[in-house]
Amino acid sequence: MSTFKFNFLDNTDNEETEDKREEINWFECEEIIPDKQINDLDNIVVHAKMFVCEDIEIGHVSSCDKLFSSGDYELNALELADKEHSDLIAGKYEGGLKVWECTSDILKYLLENTDINFKGAKVLDLGCGVGILGIYALQNDSIVTFQDYNKEIIECVTIPSVLLNIENEQREEVIKKCKFYSGDWASFDKKLPDTAVYDIILTSETIYNEKNYEKLTNIFLNRLSKDGSAYVAAKTCYFGVGGGMRQFETHIQKTSLINSEVAWKSTGGIQREILKIKRI
């Protein structure tokens, strides 16, 4: 598969692009049951990589080459992204094949803040991609919901990556602690039962598009438990698209039901931060 790049600069602020943004038909949410992946893992996983952060090692799927010609899975979004050599095609593909830089930031933060208790916690990995954050939570005895925009990502990348990190004889049992959803955040929020709330919500590099801020904020409003916390890891500014931490903070301040604080900032290079969000 070709090397991807984050094609943010395709989303310029000209009138034509704004019109195209308004016309996006976001994918509806689907719950995906992992039965097929449990039985077909060898055919799905062609190439795997090891994600390493401090003492954490998590294996994950790194390519879907074999699936492109197999005909067993629908890969429309992934094929389009590969053809366009892009990590972002708004409304079509939202970068789920790449492990973004801020994933390491949030994992280091979780390791350093041992008061964050994962044991028995209900955790949501929002915009999960390959599922690194959710896999970490699962390894620490959490009950985990994985969500990403593209169905193909969940089927061919997320679920196989989760299974790679479970011993063969335990897969069918451990995977019962997981749920998997694809689709737009607004549709996802509606799809979940009213009783679905989370003690910990983790999300990395998901605030680049200001048009999605209301959907994301609504998930925090509707799905954080009373004493739960959400952790948003992102670059301070996403050049070329208008999104970033200050814009997202401003949006959060419009509601009186949740508040936020900057829990961590990088000290060099491209500025990155972690925002902690709680109910009031």
Could you explain the architecture of this structure?
This protein is of the alpha/beta class and 280 residues long. It starts with 14 loop residues before the first helix and ends with a strand. The chain is built from eleven helices and ten strands. The chain has helices at 15-22, 35-44, 65-68, 76-84, 102-112, 132-139, 151-164, 171-174, 185-191, 213-223, 245-252, and strands at residues 30-31, 47-53, 56-63, 122-126, 143-148, 178-182, 198-204, 224-235, 258-265, 272-279. Helix 6 (132-139) links the parallel strand 4 (122-126) and strand 5 (143-148). The strands form two sheets. It has an eight-stranded mixed β-sheet with strand order 1-6-5-4-7-8-10-9, sandwiched between helices. It has a two-stranded antiparallel sheet with strand order 2-3. Helix 2 packs across helix 7.
DSSP, total strands? 10
Q: Stretches where pLDDT falls below 50 for ≥5 residues?
A: 1-21
Biggest sheet strand order reads 1-6-5-4-7-8-10-9
User: Could you give the distance between the termini?
Assistant: 46 Å
The helix content is 25-40%
Strand content: 15-25%
Q: Helix count?
A: 11
Apparent shape: globular
Characterize the biggest β-sheet: 8 strands, mixed
Query: What is the typical, i.e. mean, pLDDT?
Result: 88
Radius of gyration: 18 Å
Structural class by helix and strand composition? alpha/beta
